[in-house]
């Protein structure tokens, strides 16, 4: 598949059903258009939603995903569908945040990836979760995530 070949993709440009769960969601990838070049890709999901596994009440987070591609980049529509598949999924903040990062690593095999899950309060306190695959590579501009400490998150 060349960097512009999207023939293997099943969602891009298609009417796609929302996956019922993160396990059913398919993450798709395409070759990086800049093979051999180190750069950072950022996805921000300021309205991420999942369910508390104990109460079933909704939990909300501002997710920031940064990664340095190796051979693959994530196809953004598949990422959006994957993230929205958590809306009816009951899991603790830690399971959601780290699980999303691990799933992206499994799919993309990036040089480096980090995810920040900035969760709105549950029980009066926010529970923020951070995970990364290791040290950020030298020579790549990795901007700060800059999500404010909780005071309405913005």
TrEMBL record:
Its EC number is 1.7.1.13. It is found in: Cytoplasm. Pfam families: QueF. Catalyzes the NADPH-dependent reduction of 7-cyano-7-deazaguanine (preQ0) to 7-aminomethyl-7-deazaguanine (preQ1). It comes from the Bacteria. It catalyses: 7-aminomethyl-7-carbaguanine + 2 NADP(+) = 7-cyano-7-carbaguanine + 2 NADPH + 3 H(+). Substrate binds at residues 74-76, 93-94. It comes from Teichococcus aerophilus. Pathway: tRNA modification; tRNA-queuosine biosynthesis. Residues 1-26 are annotated as: Disordered. It is an enzyme of class 1 (oxidoreductase). This is NADPH-dependent 7-cyano-7-deazaguanine reductase. GO terms for molecular function: preQ1 synthase activity. Belongs to the GTP cyclohydrolase I family. QueF type 1 subfamily. The active site is at 52 (thioimide intermediate), 59 (proton donor).
């Amino acid at each position: 598949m060349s960097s512009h070949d999207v023939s293997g993709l099943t969602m891009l440009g298609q009417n796609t059903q929302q996956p019922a769960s993160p396990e059913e969601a398919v993450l798709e990838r395409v070759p990086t258009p800049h093979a051999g070049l180190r750069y950072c890709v950022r996805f921000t999901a300021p309205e991420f939603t999942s369910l508390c596994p104990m109460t079933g009440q909704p939990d909300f987070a501002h997710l920031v995903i940064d990664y340095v591609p190796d051979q693959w980049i994530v196809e953004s529509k598949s990422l959006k569908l994957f993230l929205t598949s958590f809306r009816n999924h009951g899991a603790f903040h830690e399971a959601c945040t780290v699980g999303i990062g691990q799933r992206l690593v499994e799919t993309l095999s990036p040089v480096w990836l980090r995810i920040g899950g900035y969760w709105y309060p549950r029980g009066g306190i926010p529970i923020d979760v951070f995970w990364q695959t290791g040290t950020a590579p030298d020579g790549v501009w990795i901007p700060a995530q800059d999500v404010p400490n909780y005071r309405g998150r913005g």
